[in-house]
Amino acid sequence: MATRKSTAKSNVSAEELQSYYRDMLLIRRFEEKAGQLYGMGLIGGFCHLYIGQEAVVVGLEAAAKEGDKRITSYRDHGHMLACGMDPKGVMAELTGREGGYSRGKGGSMHMFSKEKHFYGGHGIVGAQVPLGAGLAFSDKYKGNDNVTFTYFGDGAANQGQVYETYNMAMLWDLPVIFVIENNKYAMGTSVQRATKSPSLWERGAAYGIAGEEVDGMDVLAVKAAGEKAVAHCRAGKGPYILEVMTYRYRGHSMSDPAKYRTRDEVQKMRSERDAIEHVRELLLQGKHATEDDLKAIDKEIKAVVNEAAEFSKESPEPALEELWTDIYA
Ligand SMILES: Cc1ncc(C[n+]2csc(CCOP(=O)(O)OP(=O)(O)O)c2C)c(N)n1
Ligand SMILES: [Mg+2]
């Protein structure tokens, strides 16, 4: 793999680097396991894996504090793990079991955690964007300094509701960070095929919203940009847009023939830009960890993921009466 320099300052501690490595690896291994369980027929419905995009959530969570909120789309398992939700509860929800975060009734796209301030999991493209501004409104109304990370994709960024939300968020100085996870594709449609205005963050200028583009394969760069955005919001200056340039290695969902891109393109990103490999290099080169230390972390993560998978198989299916819980009427 080509050596590359992080754009962020390198005064990062061994503990910090190791924690990013661990958190990104947990997401990668968890998603690989979810892919396997899906292949075995243990996960039904849609399943959108986050493999390749790990540095985005891990970098931004490193900039967050207790009380901050997050909301995202259907590609949501990474966000849940990064904010500290239990891998067992997430995996059991994927397999539709009682021990899952929505007691087996929500599945991959519909999980929530009040405790971790995670507001879903939304299958309707872009729907979480106005909801995210609403969450930020609630914090502004209460007068605290929490911010809301509102994640959406490059495809969602072409929706009208995003721009209505930008307008209101700026008008009311809402503490919301709009995180555009630009993984270059919306299902099979590349950004270039979808718009002639491909710099998505710059569109905020029409509403007076500040923002920037970030290298989403570099967790330190993401964290640095996240800190800047968070400081902006906490200072009461209104919303901020981060367009995080990333890449998904797997298909849009588990049923994607992937005819819209070449294997070489995917392979090139994996071998030259992988975010986990990057931190691995920083750890080894900076003598912040030995190969043995990293092996021990890998082993520890594998055990956590295997335990989650076991739990997700052993937890019972929800009882029929569960149909009548968690509903309005
Ligand atoms: C309103 C709506 N339109 C269409 C779809 C079908 N759909 C699901 S995901 C998707 C692509 C979204 O791509 P992007 O926003 O880039 O997110 P990514 O999948 O790359 O994370 C589409 C069109 C949907 N779920 N909701
Ligand atoms: Mg996309």
From TrEMBL:
<comment type="function">
    <text>The pyruvate dehydrogenase complex catalyzes the overall conversion of pyruvate to acetyl-CoA and CO(2). It contains multiple copies of three enzymatic components: pyruvate dehydrogenase (E1), dihydrolipoamide acetyltransferase (E2) and lipoamide dehydrogenase (E3).</text>
</comment>
<keyword id="KW-0670">Pyruvate</keyword>
<dbReference type="InterPro" id="IPR001017">
    <property type="entry name" value="DH_E1"/>
</dbReference>
<dbReference type="GO" id="GO:0006086">
    <property type="term" value="P:pyruvate decarboxylation to acetyl-CoA"/>
</dbReference>
<dbReference type="GO" id="GO:0004739">
    <property type="term" value="F:pyruvate dehydrogenase (acetyl-transferring) activity"/>
</dbReference>
<dbReference type="Pfam" id="PF00676">
    <property type="entry name" value="E1_dh"/>
</dbReference>
<feature type="domain" description="Dehydrogenase E1 component">
    <location>
        <begin position="23"/>
        <end position="320"/>
    </location>
</feature>
<protein>
    <recommendedName>
        <fullName>Pyruvate dehydrogenase E1 component subunit alpha</fullName>
        <ecNumber>1.2.4.1</ecNumber>
    </recommendedName>
</protein>
<dbReference type="InterPro" id="IPR050642">
    <property type="entry name" value="PDH_E1_Alpha_Subunit"/>
</dbReference>
<comment type="subunit">
    <text>Heterodimer of an alpha and a beta chain.</text>
</comment>
<keyword id="KW-0560">Oxidoreductase</keyword>
<dbReference type="InterPro" id="IPR029061">
    <property type="entry name" value="THDP-binding"/>
</dbReference>
<dbReference type="InterPro" id="IPR017597">
    <property type="entry name" value="Pyrv_DH_E1_asu_subgrp-y"/>
</dbReference>
<keyword id="KW-0786">Thiamine pyrophosphate</keyword>
